[in-house]
Amino acid sequence: MKEFLHSFGILANEEIDSFIELLVPKTLKKGEFFIKEYITYKHVAFIKKGAFRSFYYSSQEEDVTYCFTFENAFLTAYSSLITQSPATENIEAITNSELLMISKKNLDLLESKSPNWTKMYRRIAESEYIKLEKRIFLLQRESAESRYSDLVNNQPLYLNSIPLNYLASYLGITTRHLSRIRKSYHL
What we know:
Elements: H1 2-6, H2 13-21, E1 24-28, E2 33-35, E3 43-49, E4 51-57, E5 63-70, E6 74-75, H3 78-83, E7 90-93, E8 97-103, H4 104-113, H5 115-141, H6 144-154, H7 156-161, H8 164-171, H9 175-185
Antiparallel strand pairs: 1-8, 2-7, 3-6, 3-8, 4-5, 4-7
Helix pairs in contact: 4-5, 6-9
């Protein structure tokens, strides 16, 4: 955790230590939910070990995976946390996982003590925005084959640890189409 926070080059050692003192460990088994829709979420977690998928239900009640999050990353329902309104998404552990949790109340307390936390939150928000923008552009501009190739080149963890039905949903294609792409890709 210290290494991860130091990598941003914003926080002093004392600020990082204050943050770490407020963390509460939590474990989730594969298939357990970190967040369920319709609940207002008031925590941020750091993924120490494991992988998660974020998904929602379409108007046809289909389960649509839109994001995967792996170790050494923060995890929350950002919109719910920021607005303190009910989440419109679900976040499920796709492996047994270990988290380090901190409440919004404690995050606000840290921010009130040091402007560096505001800078840190901004850096994280900017990073999340860039990831979201890239994802939107891939879905709108690129073919399914290109989206799969992007995963192979940039996110090999996706391919080894995620069930095919979640991966197909993430790519916006059927599992059958994903199987054809994978077969032709590996020829």
